[in-house]
Specification:
This protein is 43% helix and 10% strand. By secondary structure, the protein is mainly alpha-helical.
Length: 98
């Protein structure tokens, strides 16, 4: 971990040192995310957060299993069960609604 001491400028502006910008892959116009937690802040980017989330998800991924296909299959089953609950079978009502 590296500690930076930065001067607060007019309107609350802080200039990030070049080596920090390079390590985060930041360029002019890029957006940064600042997360406040009590008296501490974390500065990152959406791209780096996505990368971190992908690495975490990769730990739980099973080779040859598509989580999207698995999710869709579960949703299709739920939809079929809901339809069966609403419209049970092809039971005749004896023409009462004809």
């Amino acid at each position: 971990m590296k500690l930076y001491e930065l001067l607060m400028q007019e309107n609350g502006r802080v200039v990030l040192p070049a080596d920090l910008r390079r390590s985060l892959g930041l360029a002019k116009g890029d957006k940064v995310l600042i997360e406040a937690d009590g008296d501490a802040i974390t500065l990152t980017t959406a791209k780096l957060r996505r990368k971190r989330a992908q690495l975490i998800a990769k730990k739980y991924a099973r080779p040859g299993v598509s989580v999207v296909d698995q999710f869709l299959a579960e949703k299709r089953l739920e939809a079929e069960q809901e339809i069966d609950r609403i419209e049970p079978g092809d039971e005749s009502d004896g023409g009462a609604n004809s």
